[in-house]
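for the recovery benchmark. tokens below, seq after
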């Protein structure tokens, strides 16, 4: 009993929650190589998979290619988006949201987490789980995708959509983009901190 207690006290990760353990994992494993690799996977998936899947429900001269790319949208915009597409195209859009775009969220989330972890690695004790911030964007992206798929299925079945679900989808989309702006801000601040730190070290030498 005594040895087990002493082991736990020497290993703080045993007492920390899953978020802190995940945060510590990314701080430890994130390097420039893994960041560049994650970015390559992101770019490759975007160009060779996501964009190609998007053509299945693309309408020529349409002002909105996908609802998730706009900062919030109303019930009228959703209905207009669905009305100008065939049932086959709407089914493709449902599949896009449930599979391809949801996987894309995980890919860009990991990429951003790795970059933030790399930039803030010297300050990890001070900033804590800040490196997991991009996963907040992923969660609301998934919620948005689920809501849009639900609305699309409802439109196919009933020819109309729920105003409350439409509001939820719009809210999730807005929060997703707020998280996105926060992530970009954190990355820019991290780059600035790294540059300032490098300049200070150079002056000291």
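predicted aa per position
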């Amino acid at each position: 009993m005594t040895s087990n207690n002493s082991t736990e006290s020497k290993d703080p990760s045993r007492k920390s929650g899953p978020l802190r353990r995940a945060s510590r994992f990314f701080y430890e494993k994130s390097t420039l190589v893994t960041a560049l690799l994650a970015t390559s996977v992101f770019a490759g998936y975007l160009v060779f998979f996501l964009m190609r899947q998007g053509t299945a429900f693309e309408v020529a001269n349409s002002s909105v290619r996908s609802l998730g790319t706009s900062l919030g949208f109303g019930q009228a915009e959703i209905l207009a988006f669905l009305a100008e597409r065939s049932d086959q195209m709407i089914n493709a859009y449902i599949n896009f949201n449930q599979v391809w775009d949801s996987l894309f969220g995980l890919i860009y989330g990991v990429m951003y987490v790795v970059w933030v972890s790399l930039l803030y690695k010297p300050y990890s004790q001070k900033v804590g789980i800040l490196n997991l911030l991009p996963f907040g964007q992923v969660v609301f992206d998934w919620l948005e995708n689920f809501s849009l798929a639900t609305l699309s299925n409802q439109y196919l079945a009933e020819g109309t959509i729920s105003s409350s679900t439409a509001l939820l989808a719009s809210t999730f989309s807005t929060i997703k983009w707020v998280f996105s702006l926060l992530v970009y801000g954190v990355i820019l601040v991290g780059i600035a901190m790294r540059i300032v730190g490098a300049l200070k070290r150079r002056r000291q030498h």
